[in-house]
Amino acid sequence: MGGKVFQRNFKATMSLVARGEGIYLYDEEGKRYLDGCSGALISNIGHCVPEVIEAITEQLKKIEFAHTSRWRNKAAEEAADEIASIAPEGMDYVWFVSGGSEAVESAVKLARQYFIERDGMHTSKALVIARWNSYHGSTVGTMALGGSIPRRRIYSPLFKEFPKIVAPYCYRCPFDKKYPGCGVVCAHQLEDLIKNIGSQYISAFIAEPIVGSTVGALTPPDEYWPIIREICDRYDILLIADEVMTGFGRTGANFCVNHWDVVPDIIATAKGMAAGYVPTGGIIVRNEIAETIRGGSGAFVHGYTYNGNPVSGAATTAVLRYMKEHNLVANARIQGEKLGKGLKEIEASNPIVGEVRGKA
Description:
Strand 2 and strand 3 (32-34) form a beta hairpin. The radius of gyration is 21 Å and the shape is globular. The strands form two sheets. A seven-stranded mixed β-sheet has the order 4-10-9-8-7-5-6, with helices on both faces. Strands 1-2-3 form a three-stranded antiparallel β-sheet, with no helix packed on it. It is α/β, with parallel strands linked by helices. It is 36% helix and 12% strand. The protein has helices at residues 38-41, 50-62, 74-86, 100-119, 140-145, 149-152, 185-197, 224-234, 287-295, 310-325, 328-349; strands spanning 17-21, 24-27, 32-34, 93-97, 127-131, 164-165, 202-207, 238-243, 266-269, 281-285. Helix 4 (100-119) packs across helix 9.
């Protein structure tokens, strides 16, 4: 019979993609399609950029794989330098993986190990607080963090649930309040839950700076992230920003948290990191956390086969240099402002539009 691809959706009819160029995809008949959603919000610099393809090809001629339990590789180290150059200050360490789900899993495990290294094996800090109306990945562990009911429904018996608070969903406020008179109660709910559980049991809080796939472009009030940062600091809890979707210029800033001048303890990221050219993700880690591991056991008790893959490193470096050379982050901000203005005009004249959301 021959091999068959296990389709993502057997009941959907999809065109066969033949090639890509810039912002367009082409089918076998040569018909051109605007890749309006950039794949799964991953193709940040467009398809088939020659400079990136050349960098990947040259790396393949040197070494395609060397396991990081035995080898360092220059490609990954150059990629870490490029990432650190645009990351928030004091976040110079990068742990490379193959995608967003692996990045979030790595962040959660690192948070746990950090407190063990700092306080000893007796520490009870293990729980991670997350939010409803969130998405953090498709593994069993990351689904337990996520608050997307349709994705969780059939798999929920498989995982250990994590505690959650509501998302900052002003359009359908779960507290039936109006901003700004609400006092940003959705952010202060984190402190209430911490008090109920006990901060001694909590290692981290994870959230998307702007929610992507579960509630489109759900943008929090400007006070939200600074309040969250202050609460985490006060209760000795790490702040994990899930920037898998929003990182690397997607919102017109290097990282979305830059909009509020908030520095997380860990950033989980992927997608735009290598812009779809090679499966790539990673966590960007505050220096003090990495140095605690270095000065303690010396090893992160975690790993994947493709950690620090040299081809992923070459792709990441090429993508980030291309972004810098062509000022793509600034351009994303400019185009976002234009799009936002146009959508607001539609909202004002069309009663079926409930709310236009985004970050300018």
